[in-house]
Amino acid sequence: MKKIASLISTVGHPLIMIPVIFEALLLKYGEGKIVQELSLMIGCLFLAATLWVYLKFRNGSYSNFDVSVQKQRKSLYLFVIPLLIITSLILYITNQPTFIFQAFVVGSLLMITSFILNFFLKTSLHVSLNTYLAASVFIIDSPIGIGLFLFTLLIAWSRIHLKRHTIQEVLSGFITGLIYGSCLYWITFNVDVISQSKI
User: How far apart are CA 41 and CA 48, in angstroms?
Assistant: First the structure.
């Protein structure tokens, strides 16, 4: 069971899961130049985050690629949060689709909340980010979104089985992701963003 849990946890790593799903949906629903622009922006974002984690892992600052030690996560948040905010600004300035811009802004708030929670408990980023991803995708493609929700349950199980997180940490991740996923859902259908185009 440990091998299965390890495989699920690896596939469900946010640095793998999010860009893969994003690119797949972009190819399915995107049109023309927007596909190239967003692919480049999101590719650079996740490449930067991946390189950061990899280099920190190589020099011993992080014990593993999951950054599963609570104290080590502070530097991860302090790198990723500004990166997300900058990406959100670029998305807005370059007049990218409203939904994508909104998703990154809300995602930035999710990470800020996770950073604050990290002072008290090591909330599961695997679970929170995949829950948020599932909620975001549900808005665009409900069957895929539901599938991602179900897969997130497997991810939650894998994180507990591998002893990377406690049940409390997994639940906090799920609740955080669900709250901000719900916020994105509400914003998507109730808030207009000036000069932003629809995807």
Answer: 11
Q: How far apart are CA 152 and CA 13, in angstroms?
A: 11
Domain boundaries, the chain: 2-190
Judge contact between 14 and 132, C-beta under 8 A: no
Q: Token pair of 143, please?
A: 């069957």
CA distance 175 to 112: 15
Answer for the pair 17, 11: CB distance below 8 angstroms, yes or no. Answer: yes
Cα–Cα distance between 176 and 173 in angstroms, integer? 5
pTM of the model: 0.91
Answer for the pair 93, 59: CB distance below 8 angstroms, yes or no.
Answer: no
Q: Is the confidence at residue 12, as pLDDT, over 50?
A: yes
Instruction: Check whether 48 has a pLDDT greater than 70.
Output: yes
What pLDDT was estimated at residue 125? 96
Q: What is the dihedral of CA 57, 59, 63, 68, to 10 degrees?
A: -50
Long-range contacts of 68-73 (CB under 8 A, 24+ apart): 68/122, 68/164, 68/165, 70/118, 70/121, 70/122, 73/118, 73/122
* Best CA proximity match to 180, nearest among 144, 127, 142: 127
Structure tokens, 19: 């860009």
Which pLDDT tens digit goes with each residue over 59-77?
Answer: 999 998 889 889 999 999 9
Which residues are bridge partners to 97 per DSSP? 197
Q: What is the dihedral of CA 134, 23, 45, 168, to 10 degrees?
A: 20
One-letter amino acid for residue 154 of the chain: L
